[in-house]
Design brief:
7 helices, mainly alpha, globular, 178 residues
């Protein structure tokens, strides 16, 4: 599969292009945008190229506001550094997704118990593959994350798409909606 390697972008495509040619075009664009600097950034985070793309795919699904990508990436990298589970809702959404409701939201407690290698609430480490095709901004956020003390984040209660970040689980709970 090419999931994770088909860069969301603007393309000029011939109407005569077949599916195989389209995949080649998309993957070539991905390769051209994946600069040596981004690859070096992944390495500096202790990640392989594939691991960086997996995390970027999770960041892509989490970040509503592009400016938060690097802070969200920092949370996941901080968790990985101490061996903490990622506990990323988008990985569970991917695990339970279906064509009628691919990105279920909100998730139920039962959803968080689904036995899947993509369920990062149950399994430690990264899911086996990317869960979507990350944008260049999400790839850069993982390669060059914000340096934060955060291990938690959750959507703010105001519907803005912004997140509240926390260092401790207690602070994280306090950021919850009433």
């Amino acid at each position: 599969t090419h999931e994770g390697f088909l860069l969301p972008d603007t393309y000029s495509i011939s109407r005569h292009l077949n599916a195989d040619e389209l995949v080649v075009l998309l993957t070539e664009n991905f390769t051209s945008k994946l600069t040596p600097e981004i690859q070096a950034g992944f390495t500096a985070q202790g990640l392989s190229l594939y691991e960086g793309i997996i995390i970027a795919s999770i960041v892509e699904r989490e970040a509503i506001i592009p400016d938060e990508r690097s802070a969200i990436a920092s949370v996941y990298l901080n968790r990985i550094a101490i061996g903490q589970k990622l506990e990323a809702d988008p990985t569970v959404q991917y695990a339970i997704g279906n064509p009628q409701n691919w990105w279920k939201s909100p998730l139920s407690y039962a959803d968080l118990e689904v036995n899947s290698p993509y369920n990062t609430y149950i399994y430690n480490g990264l899911p086996p593959t990317p869960i979507c095709n990350p944008t260049l901004g999400s790839l850069e956020a993982v390669a060059f994350p914000a340096q934060t003390p955060y291990y938690y984040f959750r959507a703010r209660c105001d519907g803005s798409g912004l997140h509240s970040f926390a260092e401790t689980f207690e602070e994280h709970l306090a950021n919850g909606c009433e």
